[in-house]
Amino acid sequence: MKLQDVLAEKTSLWIFGYGSLVWKPDFKFKRSKVGYIQGYKRRFWHGDNFHRGNNEMPGRVVTLVEDDDACTWGVAYEVTGAQIEESLKYLNVREAVLGGYITKAVEFIPRENEEAPLLALVYIATADNPIYLGPASPEEIAAQIVVSRGKTGHNIEYLLRLADFMRLRCPEVEDTHLFSIETATLAIVLASELDMSAL
Description:
Number of strands: 5
Radius of gyration: 17 Å
Largest sheet: 5 strands, mixed, barrel
Distance between the termini: 58 Å
Structural class: alpha+beta
Number of helices: 5
Order of helices and strands: HEEEHEEHHH
Strand content: 25-35%
């Protein structure tokens, strides 16, 4: 579905976040719901040379990769009235201009069973993006995360906040990719601290 179809004559709009938007939307919204979208898996395959890294040492942030058997959990935010234009202007800079993400319309399924699916806007970085980094092992991704910092903060913070969100808000979901990178990252940090204490 095309973006203009989603926005046409809309008095409200849902925006789905699966990365930093789950804890730091930074735009005004009416309400939010935890839930998931189907047909995509979340992966730390996108580079970040602004928020969580720089040109010399890009950070690793998440994007969505198409996978018919997968689903990705996150938060959908409803924006209404003037909030629609305000949030889209803000997200265009944060996600599209600085992050290199494109927009798609997806079906969002709220966690609460009695609630109907919603059409939501989502930002996705694709493989043809210049700062797309692609697949790597959890250990390789962790090694990149522990040394990367951008204007928003350290790349480790991004990883740990996302892992915390999944444990607190979606405790029944086992995100193997996310948690394996968290484990590998914490192992590097611990080893570094032990090395320092031995000096």
